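[job 4471] stage=fold_predict status=RUNNING
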Amino acid sequence: MGMRKKVVFITGGARGLGAGLARRVIDGGGQAFVVDLHAEAVFERVEALGPQAAGCQADVTELNALVLAMDACVERFGRLDAVVANAGILKMGTLEHMPTTDFEAVMRVNVHGVFNTIRAGIPHLRQSKGYLQVVSSLAAAIHTPLMGHYAASKAAVEALADVARQELAADGVAVGCVHPTFTNTAMIQEVNAGVLWGGHKGAFAAIEPEEVIEAMYRGIVKRQRKIIAPRHIAPLVLAPGLFHRVAEGIGRLQGSDAALKKFKAEERSVTQQ
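[job 4471] inference complete, writing structure tokens
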């Protein structure tokens, strides 16, 4: 599978899945334009990726910043064939005690950021009859404790992708939605999410970023509608209501209740200080 010199614009492209996808695009014969909130990280990533990469600092919560970034991408490479709305953040907390600022931050980046990326990308993708890829999560379908804001944001992201697919079909623009399971990225490690889910096995076992990156790359090349990684979680994503009770039961068996109890105790202790 090759990119045939196609240009892919990636938000959150300085690290994690975004950075890995940029490398995979270039290795496949394409060109990558990466944007991230941190200018220095973008510079370092572009330098590491080589001459087939470019990028700039951009805050996905600012629509005009993405408009300017995509204009810069077209100026540099002459076209824009695919947009990947990958930027996102993760925080943990119970609905009872999570700071409202955490809820708002997750929604601002994960939902408003994706909306802004779609909005800025539409004129370019309409011109190239390109492909839009939006990164959701298994969390959009299976809602686990401590991730109320994240699960809600990723469900919203899936809805945005479904609407965009219908609205842009007549323009020849294809839309895909990515649903990875728990993935061993720096974002996950930074919030210590492995405390709750790191010990899970089977369908809920963590996977390595490379598996998700390859699925995302394949999705771009094939203009896929649903990108699910690993593939065996497809029933959970496609028919989530049937699996909610099962997922909750497996979580309890694999230690989620104990981890949740410990987290809640620590959370209460902090709020009482």
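[job 4471] summary: The chain has one domain: 7-272.
[job 4471] exit 0
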